[in-house]
Amino acid sequence: MTQRSALTAPLAPARSDNGILARVPGQYIALASRSLPDPACAVEHEMRVEIDAAWAGRVRLTFEKQRYCRPKAKTSYWAWHCRHAEAVAAPIIAACGEDGSRPTSPGPADQASPDGDNTCTVRP
C-alpha cells in the first residue's frame, strides 16, 4: 500500500491567490459580509469592502458572488464568498494634535494648506 498507482493523477495546486486571507480573523470576514447587499439581488459579481481587522490592521476584502444548488433541485441559493484579502496602508496624519488642530510650528512633513485654514493634512 505504500506504492502509488500509475493511474492516480496528481492533485491540482490549490488556488494561492488569496493574499493575507488566512491571517484575517473569521469574525471580521463575517462582519464585512453582512455589510454587503443581498447576493440574490446584487448586480455586481464582485465587491470589495475595507475593514479594520484588529491585529491584522486595515484590510481590503474581495467577495465573489456564488450560486449554490443541490443536484436535481428546483431552487438555487446565492451567497458571498470571500476570495482575497490585501493589506491597506492606513493614512498617516502628520504632526497633528489629537483634536485635529494644527501644531504651532509645522514640521517638514506637515505643510500649510493652500487656503490657509487650520486643518491637518492626511498623508497616504
What does this structure look like?
The structure is a single chain. The chain has 124 residues and is mainly β. It has 2 domains: 21-87, no CATH class; 91-124, no CATH class. The chain contains 1 helix and 5 strands, in the order αβββββ. The chain has one helix at 26-34, and strands at residues 46-52, 58-68, 77-87, 92-93, 122-123. The strands form 2 sheets. A 3-stranded antiparallel sheet has the order 1-2-3. The protein has a two-stranded antiparallel sheet with strand order 4-5. A hairpin with a 5-residue loop joins strand 1 and strand 2 (58-68). The model is unreliable at 105-124 (pLDDT under 50).
Q: Which sequence of SSEs, written as H and E, runs from N to C? A: HEEEEE
Mean of the pLDDT scores? 74
- Strand arrangement in the largest pleated sheet: 1-2-3
What fraction of the residues are assigned to beta strands by DSSP?
A: 25-35%
Overall SS class: mainly beta
* Strand element count: 5
Number of distinct helices? 1
Tally of discrete structural domains:
2
Rg result: 23 Å
Largest sheet: 3 strands, antiparallel
Q: Which outline best applies?
A: elongated
* Assembly type: single chain
N-C termini distance? 58 Å
Q: Flag low-confidence runs.
A: 105-124
Region (Disordered): 97-124
Organism: Pelomonas caseinilytica
Protein name: Transposase
